[in-house]
Amino acid sequence: MANKLLSESELLAMSENDYMNRAQLEFFECLLRTHKSATMDEIEEAKNRLSSPPESNDEADRAQYEEESALLIRLIDRKRRLLPKIDLALARIHQGTFGYCIETEEPIGLRRLLIRPTAEYSLDAKELQENREKHFRV
């Protein structure tokens, strides 16, 4: 029989010593798989909306459709870039490195992972990285 998945409150109530135990990894794997499925559905829905333009000769309607199309294209692009990040996070679960910063190897933290389950960096490491990018950007 399959194990019951933790709830978010049960996950957060666990001891720091239990960080990235089997139950937590199963929770995040389910979360990521659900997120991936929803992302793929959103991409498909946006593509379907793009493929059926309204039939109208009114310039205002066409302009509105063009604006909505541009937004949908950006949404599709953003969602497509998210899918490989989800796959990498799932791979890290199976490798045993999920939940740990790829730069410092320190725990990323459950609260951060709940907000951004694809996170690869701890908050401190991410802030340092962004500051370096801002400083060296030309």
Structural features, described:
67% of the residues lie in helices and 0% in strands. It has 138 residues and is mostly helical.
Quick structural overview:
The chain has 138 residues and is an all-alpha fold.
Features:
about 140 residues; mainly alpha; Four Helix Bundle (Hemerythrin (Met), subunit A); 5 helices; about 65% helix; elongated
Span of the ends, CA to CA: 57 Å
Strand fraction equals under 5%
Number of helices: 5
Q: How many DSSP-defined strands?
A: 0
At the first level of CATH, what is the class? Mainly Alpha
Portion in helices: 55-70%
The total domain count is 1
Structural class: mainly alpha
Pick out the low-confidence regions: none
Instruction: Report on the biggest sheet.
Output: none
How much is the average pLDDT?
Answer: 91
Q: State the CATH superfamily name.
A: DksA, coiled-coil domain
- Output the radius of gyration: 20 Å
Which architecture name does CATH use? Up-down Bundle
The assembly state of the depicted protein chains is single chain
SSE series: HHHHH
Which fold name fills CATH's third level, the topology?
Four Helix Bundle (Hemerythrin (Met), subunit A)
Sequence-ordered SSE layout with sheet pairings:
Layout: H1 8-13, H2 22-50, H3 59-95, H4 110-115, H5 123-136
